[in-house]
Design goal:
This protein folds into 3 domains: 118 residues, Rossmann fold, CATH 3.40.50.11750; 152 residues, HypD, alpha/beta domain 2 (Rossmann fold, 3-Layer(aba) Sandwich); 49 residues, no CATH class. The chain is 41% helix and 18% strand. It is α/β, with parallel strands linked by helices.
Length: 364
């Protein structure tokens, strides 16, 4: 536990909080982009260590949360076919679509399997050639290389019964969408360290310059986040807008170039719809022509359809940093982890789930 505990030292945390109090002179609103950071902030009470003038809001940094309802419905349409084995990470099976979720489909007899790596789905396809095996390829840039490798290996092995339902999203376009919105409150960002481990930091510099916002790439432990906040607040106070890398133990400017080469070969950039936000240009990946034979949407002839979120659910506003989970009238009542209305409550990285799990305990 040594290498975890050293980033959770309470005395060091207090010193960083004091350093933030010393430099801050006015109100600032900072968004952490990643759901993992959100959970750390709420779990460890980081907001409570900060001065009232520094407010943290929670961004669309959970791929489960931003996967649109239409994509969940497509997953359900595929999974309920008799000739299909549908493979997914565990956090996706309870995300509600417009009428049901994958866990409910499995209870009704669909062959829905939870896998721990995309390569598990490739193995299942190799072992069950009489079935169509579909992997739900969800995630940000972090999961992209493994998902791309699964498709590449299926092609290399000639697995014609394997396909991927791709719902890959990209973080920098989401930051741009937030900053270009007329009602944005965000003045600085903590960027997700694991995304930058793959992609590097170079994509953020144009955003920092264009919108005049500091962007600090940050890890996921309490001291990572507090140090990232200190650097962000210091930039704001000094009227600077630069990209800084707090997470140097894992992130370099260039990122993982081998992974990037695989991503460029397997995926192409497309417009994606984000749940609760809407379409964002060039914010997702789809399969390139070389690999489009493994596109589940095309293989099963799925048509696009518009569906709406429950009117009472404000998860879209939470994902944009405009509201907090507790502002929702359904929070903890009609909406809870065992009966979620929106993905921000069901996801392991969702802001609503974090508030429900940790803030309610502290209040009790």
């Amino acid at each position: 536990m040594k290498h975890v505990d050293e980033y959770r030292d309470p005395h060091a945390a207090q010193k960083l909080a004091q350093a933030i109090r010393k430099v801050v002179t006015q109100r600032w609103t900072i968004m952490e982009v990643c759901g993992g950071q959100t959970h750390a902030i709420v779990r460890f009470g980081i907001q409570d260590l900060l001065p009232d003038s520094v407010e943290l809001v929670h961004g669309p940094g959970c791929p489960v949360c931003v996967t649109p309802l239409e994509m969940i419905d497509k997953a359900l349409e595929i999974a309920t076919r008799d000739d299909v084995i549908f493979c997914s990470f565990g956090d996706m099976v309870r995300v509600p679509g417009s009428r049901a979720d994958l866990l409910g489909a499995r209870a009704r007899g669909a062959d829905v399997r939870i896998v721990y790596t995309p390569l598990d789905a490739v193995r299942i396809a190799a072992d069950n050639r009489d079935k169509q095996v579909v992997f739900f390829a969800v995630g940000f840039e972090t999961t992209g290389p493994a998902n791309a490798m699964a498709v590449h290996m299926a092609k290399t092995q000639g697995l014609r019964n394997f396909s991927a339902l791709v719902s890959q999203a990209l973080v920098p376009p989401a930051i741009e969408a937030i900053m270009s919105a007329p009602d944005t409150r965000v003045q600085g960002f903590l960027a997700a360290g694991h995304v930058c481990t793959v992609m590097g930091t170079h994509a953020y510099a144009p955003l920092a310059a264009k919108y005049g916002v500091p962007i600090v790439v940050t890890g996921f432990e309490p001291l990572d986040i507090l140090q990232g906040l200190y650097r962000c607040v210091l930039q704001l106070e000094q009227r600077r807008a630069q990209v800084e890398n707090q997470y140097e133990r894992a992130v370099c400017e260039a990122g993982n170039t081998a992974a990037q080469a695989l991503l460029e070969r397997v995926f192409r950039v497309v417009t994606r719809k984000w749940r609760g936000i809407g379409e964002i240009g060039e914010s997702g990946w789809a399969l390139t022509p070389e690999y489009e034979a493994f596109d589940a949407e095309k293989r099963f002839g799925l048509a696009d359809a518009e569906v709406s979120e429950p009117e009472i659910c404000i998860s879209g506003l939470v994902l944009q940093g405009l509201k907090k989970p507790a502002d929702c009238p359904a929070f903890g009542k009609q909406c809870a982890p065992d009966h979620p209305l929106g993905a921000t409550m069901v996801s392991g990285e969702g802001a609503c789930a974090a508030y429900y799990r940790y803030r309610r305990k502290r209040a009790a």
